[in-house]
Predict the structure.
Amino acid sequence: MSPRKTKAIPVHPVIISLGTLSIAFALVVPWLPWWKLLWPLALASFVFTSGALTFLAARHMQLLRHRRQHPVRWKRRHGDTRQVPRQPSQDYYLMVLGSGGHTKEMLMMMDDGFCDFEGFHRRYLVSGGDRMSLNHLEDYEADLGQLCDEEGRSAGSYDVRFVTRARRVHQPLLTTPFTALASLYDIIFNVLLSSPPQGEPAATELRYPRMIFSNGPATGFFVALAVHILKMIYVIPQDRCFFVYIESWARISTLSLTGKLFHHTGLADGFAVQHVEVASIYGVEDAGPMVFNSRRAADDAPSTGQTK
Amino acid sequence: MEPASQGCLKRHCLVTVGATVGFEDLTRAVLRPAFWEHLKSQGFTALRIQCGPDITWASSELSSHSDDIPPGMTVDVFEVSKNLMKEEMALCKPVHGQRRLGLVISHAGTGTILDAWKLGLPIIVVPNTRLLNDHQTELARHLGNEGYAIHSSTGREAISKAELLWEDNKSRWPPNDPSRSQDADAISIWDIQPGGAQKEEVAQMTHD
């Protein structure tokens, strides 16, 4: 366990000082004419705001530091670990789906034959209007259900949550801040803070997703931002919502814009790319071409069914 | 049921340019009777061309050459498909006694390429260099180098490469098959775990 280098901002003294100020106000206010209140009011607002900002800044730095010191572990398989049941299998993951290509890649990474999903809940985040991603994920879940039936295992459960698109194609920049905020609102309340449906083993621990995965769409960055803010104000505990960003396989030699944002802001608990060239340029983890973990239509052999 | 003799086996060639923008170079190249003749000579019985927004001029181009379509072969153009992989690519898969292994000629779209990989189909990738930032060329070249697909830089070249493919009897998936199901080094998304001893740290930080 690494020793913490700086102390966190203590929360209790802040609350006590604010409480004292409020009480002092309540006592003094009735005795003063309203125009004499302006000065103390302005002073109090200033103190409160700077206090809050200092607290948030310190908390932000603390989170970043903790994340840097505890990066996600990229466990490699030894032999076919798909067959080894995980103990316990109960878990709750959030998968951020973007436009067609990203969704396909994400589902291919997931579709590797692993079927030990007893008590496991998958939540998919889909942008409003993205019918294609919805179709693809439902195909994946149907295939998974079939595979798990064949193997005599449980496929767990899944649900889909839609969020307002942060910016539609060709949407004027003037209205973008509003849709971006609407998007953030949806992410926070419809996706992160909304527990998995009843009937799932949704014990208190499973209230928030434990792992969140994204592979390129800008929405992923908004999700990471939302998680960071909620962790800053202690809504989401430190041991939930680990954000893992895996750059798209199509990025052969550079990071995407979203990838660069993650790389520079340090908002992801885990960051990896799928090509060694990009890994060496940016000094990040090379997870290899994870898309090729996917099961194939003809998994026993490449198609040599031609009769020439 | 067709008799299982070579002559009656179907063989599909799918050309796809993507749904959002057209790819004039490739679409024109595959709408030429000379291309159809080559396909016919290799036993293809159907050519399906997904041409996106170019559907109007492509259809009229096709109609103007409808007399040149070789007998025993069909040529169709269509704008988009709801699920290209299931509806169109699947037709290129071999079925014993009915269909031979087909061919996909495609723009360098990640989704299409990965779909073709999943189905085990040979694919000729033609980057659409007119697109912004030209990210497609890089991907196509990488695929060619790694042996996942055949890279071709123009529509015309794609056609000649298709011929080479058949001449060398390489109409099966390239030897450098990137399937990682047996790879001992592969990372599975289900194995990625948070680092460090989380629970004790949390306890320490909140009780400050």
About this structure: Residues 1-9, 300-308 of chain A have pLDDT under 50 and may be disordered.
